[in-house]
Amino acid sequence: MILVRLIDYLRDRWSLLVKLFLVVLALLVVADALPFIVDKEKAHTAAERLPGFWSLFGFVSCVIIIYVSKLFGGLGIMRIEDYYNDYFK
Amino acid sequence: MITSSELWVHPSLILLFGALLLPLIPKRVRQGYLLLVPILVFVHIHGMAQGTYGEVPFLSWTLTFGRVDALASVFGYIMALMAILGTLYALHVRKTGELVAAWVYVAGSLGAIYAGDLLTLFLFWELMAFSSVFLIWYRQESDSLAAGFRYLLVHAAGGVSLLAGILLYSRGVESLAFVSFNVQNLGAGEWLILIGFILNAAVPPLHAWLPDGYGEATFSGSVFLCAFTTKTAVYALARGFAGLEILIPLGVVMALYGVVYAVLENDCRRLLAYHIVSQVGYMVAGVGIGTQLAINGVCAHAFAHILYKGLLFMGCGSVLYMTGQSKFTELGGLYKKMPWTFLFTLIGGLSISAFPLFSGFVSKSMTVQAGFDEHILWAAFLLTLASAGTFLHTGLKVPYFIWFGKNHCKPETWERAADPPWNMNAAMAITSVLCIYIGIYTPYLYNMLPYPVDYNPYTSYHISEAMQVLLFTMLGFFLLIKKLQPTATIAIDTDWFYRIGASYFYKGADKGANSLNTMGDQIAMRRVPNALARFFAMPGGHIQWLLMRTLLRAGGATEAQIETERQKVAQRSREGSYPVGGSVLLAVVFLSLVSILFFLF
Known about the structure:
Chain A has helices at about 1-10, 15-35, 55-75, 85; one strand at about 80. By secondary structure, chain A is mainly alpha-helical. Chain B has helices at about 10-20, 25-45, 70-90, 95-115, 120-135, 140-170, 190-200, 210-215, 220-240, 245-265, 270-290, 290-325, 340-350, 360-375, 375-405, 410-415, 420-440, 440-445, 460-480, 495-500, 500-535, 540-555, 560-575, 580-600; strands spanning about 50-60, 60-70, 490. The radius of gyration of chain B is 35 Å and the shape is elongated. At the A-B interface, helix 1, helix 2, helix 3, strand 1 and helix 4 of A face helix 10, helix 13, helix 15, helix 19 and strand 3 of B.
């Protein structure tokens, strides 16, 4: 299977992929700071003119979503799988 | 305008007739027939000119079965397209009844979309509810039977609200035409209609039927379910309630609510169901914003959503069909066994996450842009936050924990796992191509939208914004992956109130009604007859005693004297030994009273 071989090929070079990924992240922020690459005329608010605003927004969003959800789940929302079945026993 | 005098065939009629004949079709031509009918419907819809068709007088109203305008056309087009893809995916399903139910369901959806008046809308609205429940029941497990009943009851309640709203609304109007309501001043009828609509759009807290039902449906049933009910509701909202401001906060809450529950979810199809809630949130918010750009965004996102969500449900449905499992804690590491399913699901995940070059990128951003344009900044930023969550779950969590991650597969699961039959692969491949095609060639979608489009998603700023949000979310995912490890749990949702609450209601009704019954029995059947029987054993004595006791008490008699008198009275009435004089006196007093009354009045 070509597809499986391709995935395995990429998995074998995992640390290289991680490095590449980090380089791409850095480039995104750098590009965001350069007006001739990213035209900030389309920005909706003043805060967005800060270089890397959306990077920070994305990362913080991700962290907030995970922690808030887990906190919410801990309030008695998370139950064992047989919660409803056990209830009617 | 074309009038109803010309012959016009309702697209739903083709599907209903096709569904009716399906059980009679011989096996060797069955697959061809299954594809032919939805393709016919699609071709018919594609060639249908705008206008009003199929007007039928009914009592004092006019039923309009075919109002074909720009808004209805774009929804009709995508529904018919999805009917082809869904049927192709379910081509090898042997249970004819399931396919019949699916087609009747699509017919209901198309009927609601082309309905020009509220009564016709209600008719097809109910047809959808009562046919789609079979897509859950055909799973033929006890859990799906129960989930189906819950699904049906909730939709029946929504239908009642819609009907009650239509009836109230009908009192003050001359025509029941389904047009935009006056959103500045809604009456009770319009509010009830709105409740019926937002129940089908799965707005919390009226959304729990969705993950409950879709998680329990058949592997192919969910592919149909995920497309039609919520998007028909979005169409109805866009038609009736564009610009209703309360829909903006409701939509934003939906977008975030789905994301939060998706973190907690262990079942991949329930996770996808929560992301329907989340994605429909963008559409509901868009309807609330109500500008031309926002309504275009709503239509574009509904169009893109039907395809990529269908694709995601096809991918997870394939995993369920091939392995019998849909929980992350029972899956993992399957890329070696199901590589193509992985690729297609990933394309669905990238589309829903709004990656540049995928369909979500050109549709979702229209609504968010409309929010920024109208200076509703909190809504626009929170919707962007929710889109980070979308990528976190659908783009990363689903593919990672099914096809990579720790292998939780039991030996028999691993043994069974493989890419699905050709037709399922073909359906996923075609849908994937469409998702990418929409993302690359924007005029395909934009030219179908109800208003002229003056919007270009591919600006350097928008690409930079999207890539930053998405890739930094990915960074967060891999940094916090331990937090996201699935656990064998369920998350309690608002369906708790009718699943557990129902048992409290039952107990309450049991205690309340039965004790009322016992009390009634005690009073009416025992106490009162007994008292009456005692009284009528010696009525004269009782009345005498009542008077005498009061007189004696007032006269200051002792308890012993009272007791002696009581016994005397009892003895006299028992033996009937009253002195004659007493009776005569009573008779004289009585006659005098009557005479006085007679003269006075």
